[in-house]
Amino acid sequence: MNKIYKGVFPIAPTPFKDDGAIDAESQKRVLDCMIDQGVDGICILANYSEQFLLSDEERIELLDLCMDHVASRVPIIATCSHFSTRIAATRAKQAAQRGAAMIMMMPPYHGALLKAGPQGIIEHFTVVAEAAGVPIMVQDAPLSGVDLSIDLLVRMATEMSGVSYFKIETPQTADKLRALIAAGGDAIAGPFDGEESITLIADLNAGATGTMPSALLPDLIRPVLTHHAAGDSTVAETQYAKILPLINFENRQCGLRACKAIMMEGGVITTDHVRHPLPPLPTETRTQLLDLARPLDPIALRWGR
Q1: Is 73 inside any structural domain?
Q2: CATH code of the domain containing 179
Q3: Per-residue pLDDT tens for 104-132?
Q4: Among 6, 167, 176, 260, which one carries the catalytic annotation?
Q5: Is residue 292 part of a domain?
Q6: Which of 60, 78, 59, 69 is nearest to 26 (CA)?
Q7: Which of 43, 60, 228, 259 is the most exposed place for a label (fewest CB within 10 A)?
Q8: Is 292 in contact with 249 (CB distance < 8 Å)?
Q9: Is the pLDDT assigned to residue 7 strictly greater than 60?
C-alpha cells in the first residue's frame, strides 16, 4: 500500500547572497532547520521558494542540493509548474528520478489570459503524472487565475493515475475542501490547505489532513494538527489563536519575505535578499514582524544563534 502523506509540509525558501547568487550553504541550513522544526516533509521550488525567479539550471542545482542534503530524512515535494506540458513533464521526471516523493503543480497558465481549459488541464496532468511515476498534488491557487471546479478536480482524482493530493488555497477554502472530500471520497488521499495556514482550523474541520505553510513557524503549527486529530479541538483552537496574529501578518503584510527575515534574524541564513523585481521588506514591517514573533519563540528565530 502506498504511503499516505499528511501533516505539515512547509515551503523551503531559497536563500540568496546580497548579489543575488544562490547561497548553497544557507540553503543547507534552511533544510536542517526545517527538519529540526519537526516537519512531516518539505516542499521545494514552490512560489514561496521564488520559483519564478530561478533559471532552469538553478532549479536543477537546487533540486540536487536539497535531495542530497535531506538524504531521505523527510519526504520532499518538488514543484514543477509550467505552462508547457513538455517542460512540466521533464521537470517532474527529473525530480522523481532524484528521489522526490511527490510533484506539486498549478494548472497550466501564462499571464492573465493564456490558460488551458478543462480538457487541456486533464491532458497536461496526465502527461506529467505518467512521466513522474510518483503522486501528484494539484495546487489550486488564485495565482494561476484558473477555475478548478469540484467536478474537474474529482475527475482528475478518479480518472487519472497518481493525482490524489490537492492543495486548496482559494477563497472559502474550507467549503471547497469539504465539497471535494464529499464528492471524491477515497480518491482524495491528501486534502491540504496552504496560504500560510491562515484558515487552518476551518480547513481541519472541513477534513484537511495536511497544511503547507512557510518555514517561519511550522513547529508551532504542527501541535495544532496533532491536537485536532486527537479530538482536542479546544486545545487546538487555543494554540492556533496564539499564533494567528503572526500568520496573518506574514500572509497579509510580508509574503515570502517574512520567513527570510525571521531566518536571517535567527542565524539560519546570511541575508534575507529577495530577487528583483520583488522589493525588500520595509524596515517598519520587519520590526513589527519580529515583535510578533519573539514572544512565540519559533525555532527559526533562534536556530542558528
Answers
A1: yes
A2: 3.20.20.70
A3: 999 999 998 999 999 999 999 999 999 99
A4: 167
A5: no
A6: 69
A7: 60
A8: yes
A9: yes
Mean of pLDDT values over 45-74: 98
Range of the domain at 61: 7-232
| Strand-pair partners of 43 | 11, 77
Helix (H) or strand (E) holding 109: strand 109-110
C-alpha cell at 136: 501528484
Active site residue 167: yes
Residue 251 lies in a domain: no
Collect all residues with Cβ–Cβ distance below 8 Å to 247 and sequence separation of at least 6: 196, 197, 198, 213, 217
- For 147-197, write each residue's pLDDT tens digit: 999 999 999 999 999 999 999 999 999 999 999 999 999 999 999 999 999
Cell numbers placing 179: 465539497
Q: How many domains does the chain have?
A: 1
Instruction: Give me the sheet containing 76-79, strands edge to edge.
Output: 7-8, 210-211, 190-193, 163-168, 136-140, 102-105, 76-79, 42-44
| Torsion (CA) 24, 28, 33, 39 in degrees, nearest 10 | 110
**Does 25 fall in a domain?**
yes
Residue 1: pLDDT over 70: no
